[in-house]
Design brief:
about 100 residues, alpha+beta, Elongation Factor Tu (Ef-tu), domain 3, 6-stranded antiparallel beta barrel, 2 helices, about 20% helix, about 45% strand, globular, DUF1905, AF2212/PG0164-like_sf, DUF1905 domain-containing protein
């Protein structure tokens, strides 16, 4: 699968382990779902390499409702000066290995 591109708003999930996320757009979520069985590991997580602005990071998509949520690490938010509600332009590719 080639690089996927989408835009989404940064949102916060306050759970047992709080995270900031961007929801993957529906069209790209459908593309990912089509190959999820081949690339997923445990709980439907899918390893990816993502980029916004000049910052690249590795993480795993989380299945959410009918799509996926992309975690945005603190180091990324700091490097790109991101705040809740900001719209991120994301480029992402599925990774062959789990993030470290």
């Amino acid at each position: 699968m080639d690089e996927l591109r989408f835009s989404g708003e940064l949102w916060y999930w306050r759970g047992p382990a709080p995270f900031h996320f961007v929801t993957v757009a529906p069209e790209q979520s459908e593309d990912i779902a089509a190959v999820a069985g081949e690339v997923s590991y445990g709980w439907g997580c899918i390893p990816v390499t993502a980029r916004t602005g000049t910052t690249e990071w590795t993480t795993s998509l989380f299945p959410r409702e009918d799509g996926y949520a992309l975690p945005v690490k603190k180091a990324v938010r700091d490097a790109e000066d991101l705040a809740l509600g900001d719209v991120l332009d994301v480029r992402m590719r599925l990774s062959p290995t789990r993030p470290s």
